[in-house]
Each structure stands twice: as C-alpha cells, then as structure tokens.
Amino acid sequence: MSSADIFYGLGKSAYWLFENTLEPTGEMFWKVMLVFGFIAFGYWMFRQVQYNKIAANDPNQIK
Length: 63
Known about the structure:
By secondary structure, this protein is mostly helical.
C-alpha cells in the first residue's frame, strides 16, 4: 500500500460525504450556517462588552 492509495481513499471519502450529505440539503445548509455565524458573533461581542466593563471597574488588574 502506497501513500497514493491513502490520499485517493481520503479523496473518494470526502467526495462521497459531499455527495450524500451536502448536496441533498441544497442552499439551506449554508443559509443556516450564515445565520448561526452572525448570531454567534453578536453574542461574542455582547460578552466582550460585558468583560470590558468588568475590567474597567477592577482596580486590581495589571495594566
């Protein structure tokens, strides 16, 4: 068994996964991922603002 067999096997596996999971979902998968990304980014920024407020009011931190 050579390394080419391994790489071709990985390629065929990835192609099979794409054909049988992503193609049937169509555009819905990407739309859901985009909306989830925006929501996750908004939550991250909300938490960052909270952490910055806590850090600004804490005099015992190293600056």
